[in-house]
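We now fix the convention by which a protein and its fold are recorded. The integers have meaning only within a learned vocabulary of local backbone shapes. The record below shows the convention in full.
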Amino acid sequence: MNNDFETLLNGQQFKKLYEKMSNIITEKYGLHKIEIEILLFLRGGTYDTARDIAENKFFSKAHISNAIEHLTERGYLSGRADEQDRRCIHLELTENAKPVCEELEKLRKGLADIIYKDITEEEKKVMIQVGKKIAHNINSELGTH
């Protein structure tokens, strides 16, 4: 396998850049990386339970539980029981989470600007298609999706 491609798949360079950029927000709001990821995930609006987070973000259930508790205590999340299954709690971002999420969106846009610099729209489309296929292949092999 090509070393540059393997490095890209491993994601260490991306993680290092993302961490560098997100440290400003984690320090400003006193949040952990997993809490930031949960806020961003819930901002998407499609999925809204701890189980959804675990299945899509691959965090441990214990870490997710602790993060949800901390975000709730800080006033960034609220929960409501599912009408069909009271054990299932749907998580919702509160008004207090809006400024944090807006800053996170700016951070993500800045990150995208950096990583897609000098990449054409056509190259981006191909990269996304190939990335989806690679993710599908990995998930199929792991039995995760």
Remarks:
- The domain at 3-142 is CATH 1.10.10.10 (Arc Repressor Mutant, subunit A).
